[in-house]
Every structure is written in C-alpha cells, then in structure tokens.
Design a protein that fits this description.
Layout: H1 2-5, E1 14-16, E2 19-21, H2 29-57, E3 64-68, E4 71-75, H3 77-80, H4 84-91, E5 101-103, H5 113-121, H6 135-145, H7 148-160, H8 167-177, H9 180-193, H10 200-205, H11 208-216, H12 226-241, H13 249-264, H14 283-286, H15 298-307, H16 312-331, H17 342-348, E6 350-356, E7 362-364, E8 374-380, E9 383-389, E10 404-416, E11 422-427, E12 431-436, E13 440-445, E14 455-462, H18 469-480
Parallel strand pairs: 3-5
Antiparallel strand pairs: 1-2, 3-4, 6-14, 7-8, 8-9, 9-13, 10-11, 10-12, 10-14
Helix pairs in contact: 5-6, 6-7, 6-8, 7-9, 8-9, 12-13
Length: 481
C-alpha cells in the first residue's frame, strides 16, 4: 500500500517507532497488518495535530472571523457548524449567515477568553484536556455554543474531581447549566462528607437551600447521634452570619457558642434566636432536625434549652409527641415496627453512626432513651452484630422486658479516599429485626478483601411502630365525649 511504501527507508527496510524490518526479511501477514494499523494511527495523529495547528492556531484559509471579549479568532464555517449555536446561525435567515465577521455577545460572566479558546479549539481536535480549575468556565462556553460533546466531557471531569473545595461550585454550576447527573453526584458527596469530614471552608460555602436538602435526608451520613447534626448546624449558621471568621475547626464550636450567648442577652426571654430577624432566614433548615432523638438524651436536651436557638413551641410539641410514644410502648405494649414503612423510615428514623479507626473488636451503644430497647452493636471478626440487651449488661436507661421487640433499621458502611469519594460501601437496605430478650443477630458479614479503614458506619432506626392517625383521633374523640 501507499502507506506502507511511505515507511520504506532508503535501504528498502521498513522503520518506525517500535518497528525495524531489515531488507529481505519476510514478515507474516499478521505482522504487516499490525504495522499498517500502527502507521494509520500515527498518520491520524499527525493529521489531527496538523489541522489544529494550521487551521485553528494559525487560522489558515479562514472564511470567518469571530470577535468576542476583545479577542479575535480566524475560523472556518465548516468546523463551526459542529456547534448548534453556529449551525442555526448559518443555516437560517439570520443576517449573520452571510457575514464573514461576527461579533459575539457574551451574556454569561462565567465565560472568559481562555474558555472560548478551548471551546473553539475543540472543534478542530478529538481530545480536549480539561483542567478542574477551568471546568466551570468551559462548561459555560460549551453550553452557550451548544457543544454537546464538550458539555458531556465537562460533566465527567466534574464528577471525577468533586472534593471539599469544588463541590459547592460544581453543584451550583450543574444547576445553572442543567447537568442533573453532576448535581446528583455533588449531593451524594455532601451527604457522605458533611458530618464525616467537617471543614470550616465547606460550612461557609453551603447555602441555606442546599443545607436544607442535606439535613432533611435520611441518607445523611451521621456520626454519633442527631445532636451532632444540631451542633453542625449551629457552627454552620454562625459562619453564615460571621463569614470573616478564620479560626480552626476545633475552635469553631466554642466561638459559635460565645457569639450566640451574646445575642441571647439582646432578646426577650421568650424569643428564640431563630425567631429573631437575624435567625429567621435559617428557620427552614432547623425544621428538618429530628428533635425527638435530641431531647431523648438529658445532656443534649439541656444544651438545646440553654442555647435558646429553637422556638419553645417546637420543643413543646416534640416533648408531647415523645411522651405519648413512651406511653404507647409501656402501656399499649407496642413491640415495634412490624413492616417496612419507607416513608416513615425516610422522614422520621433515628440517624446515628460510628467511625472505626482501625480493625479490631468494638462494642458500643448510642446514647438516649430508646423506648426500653437497649441496642448493643458489636464489630468483631468482620461481623456486625445487633444485640437486644435486657439483663446481661448494665444499662443507663430503662429496659423493656417484653418477650419480643422489633426494630426497623438500615445499616450502611463506607470507606473514603482523601478527596471524600467512596471507595467501598455496603448496605443492608431497610429491614425488620425481631429479637427476644438478650438475643443477638448478625446483620452484616463483611468480606475482608473490601475492608478499608477507617470504616464509617451509619444506621437508621425506628424503635416504635408509627401511630395510626385514625386510632389516635378516635381516642381523642372518646376522651372528649
């Protein structure tokens, strides 16, 4: 072939990178096919480089000039027609279809000269190297010019480079430019990392609407207990109000408590901070706290009362709700959930978690009054075990002696890399577990090949069955009669 002939050297041998065929040496058909494929690749690569250098960078044989942001590009209509924006412009009855100099209006402030340079250049080459620091500007340019392939590349780059510094910017940009899959990835990252890898910078960047989504989700990866979600919100709200604060994460809670304590002196006794003019903007976020799992612990309940951030009416309602739930468990002998009620689990389950720094044996319980169900969790020999403790170990709260008790639960495990991306995960899905007194049950058996420490464990629990509204209303009617 002509292509093979082009590779014949002066002595009649064939040469190239990785190839040297001396004169007179026979090669098999397979070897010649491989050589032909190699030379094709090399020629295509050279052609691509030639087109980019000669036509785009040098602007040779240009038939149209694009002007934008004070810069000029000598381009070619046949290449520009790959862009939906220019294809419509040139094929319609627009005045620009017959012009050879076009002034582009750039309405999007995210677009700069460098982004336009890369976007235009992408029309003349197959591969575009996208820097994470430039991806938002390039995405903006790609969307304006309707370059679907480049938009997709930007989306993939964003998904691969989500971290604490990029996640909020990516989330906002994905919303602006309609990249739902990127938006979903950012939300997943935040649900996994907000509590497990807290940072001052991330708290500062999180908007009210985004924080509302995170706090309301049953997929929030909570470490320890719900009280820690409240504490994180307090730190976040302080940083939203005092964005100039630049201390460390260790100092943040002390500073936030001191700042809110000063504000309490400015209000009347019956006004909570969230009811004040400053705090009102954050009300919608705090409504998604699962307060019933905060006031179930004495120390936490006292902090909530002391802080006076939350309106007293909210707390009164939750205290009443928990009192009736306790009476049902004690006097109606509620043995717990009997079926999976996903709506109830998603909206009202207890969220708690634990970090296992290294492999070993662990046993723990989550603090608070859990309606007489003292749940012990054990991690040992790659097993996670739930035990209903009644008599064998001392318990800080009351213990139910009912023969059988049920809980609804979901257990999730995850390990993260340095950027907060999940590198391994497992879940039980939502389940019902019924245990007799002091009975234990293996809920997860882990394959050691996939165990990477530190290991993060997160659980959702429902200890009581949801109260049927019709029954509770009937009881109220009877009592009134």
């Amino acid at each position: 072939s002509a292509l093979c002939a082009a590779a014949v050297n002066e002595r009649g041998g064939v040469s190239g990178e990785g190839w040297s065929v001396p004169d007179g040496e026979e090669k098999s058909p397979v070897e010649y096919v491989s050589l032909f494929a190699f030379l094709c690749r090399k020629k295509l690569k050279s052609t691509s480089k030639y087109i980019y250098q000669t036509l785009f960078l040098n602007g040779e044989n240009s038939d149209i000039k694009i002007c934008a942001l004070g810069e000029e590009w000598n381009l070619h209509k046949i290449y520009l027609c790959q862009s939906g924006y220019f294809s419509s412009m040139f094929s319609g009855s627009w005045k620009e279809s017959s012009m050879n100099i076009i002034e582009l209006e750039i309405p999007d402030q995210n677009i700069d000269i460098e982004a336009l340079q890369v976007a235009f250049g992408s029309l003349y080459r197959d591969d575009v190297l996208i820097k994470p620091s430039r991806v938002v500007a390039l995405l903006a340019a790609a969307c304006m010019l309707q370059l679907d392939g480049l938009i997709q590349q930007c989306g993939e780059t964003m998904k691969e480079t989500i971290n604490a510094k990029t996640v909020c910017g990516y989330y906002n940009s994905a919303g602006t430019y309609g990249l739902d899959s990127v938006k979903k990835k950012c939300l997943e990252w935040l649900l996994n990392n907000l509590m497990t890898h807290q940072s001052v910078e991330l708290f500062k960047e999180l908007s009210i609407n985004l924080m509302k989504q995170l706090i309301s989700s049953s997929n929030l990866f909570v470490m320890q207990v719900e009280m820690d979600v409240y504490t994180a919100l307090k730190k976040w709200m302080f940083l939203q109000l005092v964005p100039s604060w630049n201390g460390s994460l260790k100092q943040l809670l002390t500073e936030a408590d001191a700042w809110f304590a000063k504000r309490r002196k400015d209000f009347e006794d019956d006004i909570a901070f969230l009811e004040s003019e400053q705090g009102n903007a954050f009300l919608s976020v705090f409504t998604h706290l699962r307060l019933q799992y905060i006031i179930s612990d004495l120390a936490s309940a006292r902090i909530i009362e002391r802080d006076s951030l939350i309106p007293s009416e909210w707390l009164s309602s939750v205290y009443k709700q928990q009192w009736f739930a306790m009476l049902r468990a004690e006097q109606d002998n509620d043995i717990g959930p009997q079926e999976i009620n996903k709506e109830e689990l998603e909206g009202n389950s207890m969220r708690c978690g634990r970090k296992l720094a290294k492999d070993g044996d662990y046993c723990w319980r989550w603090t608070g009054f859990n309606f007489g169900f003292d749940l012990l969790v054990t991690y040992t020999n790659r097993y996670i075990i739930f035990k209903r403790n009644t008599l064998n170990q001392p318990c800080s709260g009351s213990v139910s002696l009912q023969p059988r008790r049920s809980i609804a639960f979901r257990l999730r495990l995850a390990s993260f890399d340095s950027s907060g991306k999940i590198i391994c995960s497992r879940t039980t899905g939502y389940q019902i577990l019924t245990l007799e007194k002091d009975q234990e049950q293996v809920v997860m058996n882990l394959d050691s090949r996939f165990l990477i420490f530190p290991l993060y464990i997160c659980c959702n629990f429902l200890y009581t069955s949801p109260e049927k509204k019709a029954e509770s209303e009937a009881l109220l009617d009877n009592s009134e009669g």
